[in-house]
Amino acid sequence: MGKRRNRRGAVICIFAAAAIIAALLWFFSALSGVRRGQSEEGRQQLEDALRRAAVACYAAEGVYPPNAEYIAEHYGVQTDEERYIVFYEIFADNLMPEITVIVKD
């Protein structure tokens, strides 16, 4: 009867350890998903801020900004260059530029 209790205790310990490991894996997976969501939200906010600043520049100066650096310098929209890549393509002074922000991996 003593061997049976020892086996039962070992099985319970193994299941408890497996449950703890599974819970930890689930937690870290959820945390990773939250980080991805925050990164995407930050990307969208930066893209929107750049567009608003470009429109504000057009309203104030009569032309769209020549580049993203101009927006940062004159309109205060800062880009975290370690996290995002900004593509700013302008075709003409009176056409809204194509603004795309991509999250770096």
Number of distinct helices: 2
Secondary structure class reads mainly alpha
How far is the N terminus from the C terminus?
57 Å
Number of strands: 2
Q: Looking across the biggest beta sheet, what order are the strands in?
A: 1-2
The share of residues in extended strands comes to 5-15%
Q: Which ranges are low-confidence, i.e. pLDDT below 50, for 5 or more consecutive residues? A: none
Question: What Rg, in angstroms, do the CA atoms define?
Answer: 26 Å
Globally, the shape reads rod-shaped
The average pLDDT is 85
Count of folded domains: 1
Q: What's the helix-strand series?
A: HHEE
The largest sheet is: 2 strands, antiparallel
Question: What percent of the residues sit in helical stretches (DSSP H or I)?
Answer: 55-70%
Comma- or semicolon-separated keywords:
105 residues; two-stranded antiparallel sheet; 2 helices
Structural summary, described in words:
By secondary structure, this protein is mainly alpha-helical. The protein has one domain. It is 65% helix and 11% strand. It contains 2 helices and 2 strands. Strands 1-2 form a two-stranded antiparallel ribbon. It is rod-shaped, with a radius of gyration of 26 Å. It starts with a helix and ends with a strand.
Q: What's the short story on this structure?
A:
It is built from 2 helices and 2 strands; from the N terminus they run ααββ. The chain has 105 residues and is mainly alpha-helical.
Helix/strand layout:
Blueprint: H1 2-61, H2 68-75, E1 84-89, E2 98-103
